[in-house]
Write a structure and sequence with these properties.
2 copies of one chain form a homodimer. The first copy, chain A, is of the alpha/beta class and 391 residues long. The first copy, chain A, has helices at residues 22-28, 38-55, 69-80, 94-105, 123-132, 154-163, 183-186, 212-219, 232-239, 253-269, 271-291, 318-329, 356-371, 381-390, and strands at residues 11-13, 61-65, 86-91, 109-114, 138-142, 144-145, 150-151, 167-171, 190-192, 206-210, 307-311, 331-335, 344-348. The longest helix of chain A is centred in the C-terminal third of the chain and has 21 residues, at 271-291.
């Protein structure tokens, strides 16, 4: 007979899910109410406001999609791309590639701009491509590549796209709340994120935000959106204004309690303070990792503080190290993805998980496990470096 | 400043979400672990087994989709229907209509069989339609129409479809765990359900099950599935066999804790016991409602015990009654949907909510509110009828 599941508590320092704030776990367990209950409609309205704050936007259509980040990505593409539309997709990691797949599946034509994994999207390449493909309608890129830990210059890329009359779709899955995201400042038209990264919430929802221009584009489509579930024309009827909400699908009520709580926590801390905290803990982690001889794959100027991708030392079995960390320390760090599988570790410091305890714990645990491979690591070297960074 | 959300506890007796078992709420709040953690893979394997039990099937591809029931519906259609495919859709309520919409959005041709709302799908009409449309590839119907409370004869409909070499897609959103669902006994090829109905879990996930024949059909498609997120070719890589799971999207970890717990509870009670409990409480509710002069819109033989659709008495403002029930009693019952909007109430007795306390409470609360409209209701008449039914 299968019995209740009681997971071993872990410290989550991979690419997400990251450690969840206990306040959010408590919120998840609050009593379920109906998805058309007046109190729930208040929660929806507050969630929209709080998401507008997080994304720094006045976009009316700023809501959570009722499914994980990948569905948020798909929501942007199925609604904004019509069959035959040309979309310039900047690919510098796994998630740019996924964007291109999304374009093709809805019958669009994806024009790829490729940059080496671990480097940011090159604005010059975007300019050149848009000069060549003057009929392109949309530019899509990843602000923070979760597969490499690189940040691209969203403001510059959006402004180039605008000069060429293109809408922009920006992947902010890993950036939101960890580094500055400023949709209105960038002039971005569509963005999506996830709950399980720097919002420190459980996985399962995808906040999105679309500009009025993007909404107009959706309303004036000549073909129907291929997905019923993600058709924003329908979703807007439920997430719209006033007390009358048209039933579309049943909202994931308790998951939304969790997201709401995570956004309240973010507002209490303040965006700027959250970004600064991510940066401070990143610098301390970096000191510890470098003391252990690990090297970052992303150049300093483009590094995401919340996702630290480092190379595996020679002679070290990367899978075995992760296994030891999990089994001996209940600590999860991430493996490489796609072209970087087996070549890097991805160490997350996201949201609630971005704190000095996790930095010290992770560098200590790594020191302990790596010492088994390399006699040249002096005991305590990571701790010393971390302490110095915080001093 | 927006503060934490603390909902007023309600009694949920609408069409879902229904009252959630407190064990499930507790499970939601357990510590989040990674979606590739070995412990989580064990949870996934157990969840598949438990879903096979609930659906009464040996289908290998029996998994929860990471989004609400509507996405489970869409998963079946986007994977099984290719552009140009003819699909016979039986429509006897809102959700049959939604199925037809799904067919059209992926480029299929929907051939409709319409039956009056509140009546079951007519097998003779299906026979006639399939004799006429010999090139039809799929038959789709709703086992338990949530908009009307009617049950159709799934076994007969599946068998007619099979005689005409059609695959079947069956909507079991409201039926699973409330009345008999027997995929293998029916010979159904694809079915989907929801978590927030008779599984008494929170909304947000959609259990699905596909036969080997259906999987073969998906693997031999000549066109790509239009949705990346719902493409079962990719999803199977994560939910497949063994310890190696290919990352697709980040699973909604804590929501899956909840579903797992709800399925453990179902297994502990046993399917037959769960069906019998739903029937017993339905009969008691029926006695109480009829004592108040309310009439069922579905003939006795086809009534779902878990969803009781009754007419509104003359001179009664249906919206005002629901509002009074919510405000005075914290009790939610459902309004009519689609063609039945304003014409019926839908009273759910689903899963954990199907119990004598709720039956007595609901009939008492209704008696109290309806007395304000109708002087002919004798005090205590509902309670008496309910008590007699349980005796």
């Amino acid at each position: 007979m299968v019995s209740s599941f009681n997971p071993t508590p872990r410290t989550l320092m991979g690419p997400g899910p990251s450690d969840v704030n206990p306040r959010i776990l408590s919120a998840l367990a609050r009593p379920t109410i109906g998805h058309l209950d007046p109190e729930f409609i208040r929660l929806m309205d507050e969630t929209k406001q709080l998401l507008q704050y997080a994304f720094q936007t006045k976009n009316e259509l700023t809501i959570p999609v009722s499914a994980p980040g990948s569905a948020g990505m798909e929501t942007c593409f199925v609604n904004l791309v019509e069959p035959g539309d040309k979309v310039v997709v900047c690919v510098n990691g796994v998630f740019g590639g996924r964007m291109a797949d999304n374009v093709r599946r809805v019958g669009g034509e994806a024009v790829l701009i490729e940059d080496e994994w671990g480097t940011p999207v090159d604005p010059e390449k975007l300019k050149a491509t848009l000069s060549e493909h003057r009929d392109a309608k949309i530019v899509a890129f990843v602000h923070a590549e979760t597969s490499t830990g690189v940040r691209s210059d969203a403001k510059t890329l959006c402004s180039i796209a605008k000069e060429h009359d293109c809408l922009t779709i920006v992947d902010c899955v890993t950036s939101l709340a960890g580094v500055e995201v400023n949709l209105d400042g960038w002039g971005a038209d569509a963005a999506y994120s996830g709950t399980q990264k720097c919002l420190s919430c459980v996985p399962g929802l995808s906040p999105i935000s679309l500009s009025d221009v993007a909404v107009k584009r959706i309303k004036s489509r000549t073909t129907q959106v291929s997905s019923w579930f993600l058709d924003l024309n329908l979703v807007m009827g439920y997430w719209g204004e006033g007390q009358t909400r048209a039933y579309h699908h049943t909202a994931p009520v308790n998951a939304l309690y969790g997201l709401h709580e995570s956004l309240v926590i973010l507002k209490e801390e303040g965006l700027e303070a959250s970004w600064a905290r991510h940066q401070q803990n990143h610098l301390a982690l970096r000191a510890g990792l470098e003391a252990l001889g690990l090297e970052f794959i992303v150049a300093e100027d483009y590094r995401l503080p919340q996702l630290n991708a480092v190379t595996i030392p020679d002679g070290v079995d990367e899978g075995s190290v992760r296994k030891q960390l999990l089994q001996q320390f209940n600590l999860e760090i991430g493996a490489g993805l796609g072209a970087l599988a087996g070549k890097v570790w991805r160490i997350g410091l996201m949201g609630y998980a971005s704190n000095p305890r996790n930095v010290l714990f992770c560098t200590n645990a790594l020191e302990s496990v790596l010492s088994g491979y390399n006699a040249h690591i002096n005991k305590g070297v990571a701790t010393e470096a971390v302490q110095e960074a915080y001093a």
